[in-house]
Prior knowledge:
By secondary structure, the protein is mainly α. The chain has a single domain, classed as MetI-like (MetI-like fold, Orthogonal Bundle). Helices cover 69% and strands 0% of the residues. It has helices spanning 2-15, 21-29, 31-48, 85-121, 123-138, 141-152, 157-168, 170-183, 187-194, 199-207, 212-235, 246-255, 265-292. Helix 2 (21-29) packs across helix 13 (265-292). It starts with a helix and ends in a 14-residue tail after the last helix. The model is unreliable at 1-19 (pLDDT under 50). GO terms for molecular function: dipeptide transmembrane transporter activity. Belongs to the binding-protein-dependent transport system permease family. The chain crosses the membrane at residues 33-53, 97-121, 141-171, 201-228, 265-288.
Amino acid sequence: xxxxxxxxxxSDATTRVRPGSGVLRAVLGNKKALAGAxxxxxxxxxxxxxxxxxxxxHPDTHxxxxxxxxxxxxILGTNAFGQDIWAQLVYGTRQSLFVAVxxxxxxSILSIxxxxxxxxxxxxxxxxxxxxxxVFLVIPAFPLIIVIAAYAGxxxxxxxIGVLVVTGWSYGARQLRAQAMSLRNRDFLESARVRGERRSxxxxxxILPTMVSLIAANFLGxxxxxxxxxxxxxxxxxxxxxxxxxxxxxxxxxxxxALQTGQQWWVIxxxxxxxxxxxxxxxxxxxxxxxxNPALRPVRRRKVRK
Length: 306
């Protein structure tokens, strides 16, 4: 009996994988997810160290001649204010990415609290939390965002993030509740209840580790929603128009009729960056889909020796 136990222990030790290796393997094994990770890494580097991409430190105050065409001195030319469009684009990465990540993370945390708690508690608690989720699901999101941002003073970044969190958690909460409902009566949860573990312990240490891939996918979806919605708010003038972000670039470009006056890169560049960053979030979802659903993993054919 001891020999069998030793064999099992040895096999467990040899097959044990490091935490996070499944995610890394899924990203590296999926071309779409790898492309998304590379794009996201480029944006992260630009947000952390914009000086690697441009020598201009203050694009809003560093003025040049107006309406210069793209060239060696100005990659994307200058706008109607004499500002370098490329420098604005690089420095705008930080705020756009910050809003997307922070709002997406906070919305995901709220989704976890509401969705998983509702599924595990059951009864009246589940009914009340599910009703709250349904109310936010059926409310038209963007008109509500405009109203809240306008009355709360949309120029503040904290207000924009708060509005995005309040309006962006319900869809993820519904998904997490459905997944947690399927786990509620599993044997490992019953054994935790028999041991007398607290509800908070069961939720944090028993349920959530089995839902990591779904939580990560919900975070990416919430971050994508926050990115696009924040850019939309800034475009219509409900953001702080004096800060550097892709949405404010589009706002000022539209206000100065950029497309009609030959300043097309003032519009195309931030719009393209928003699309690429959103695409990186969407492409990374393929990796987490593979983790949560093995049927989606690509089948590698073995070469048959002749």
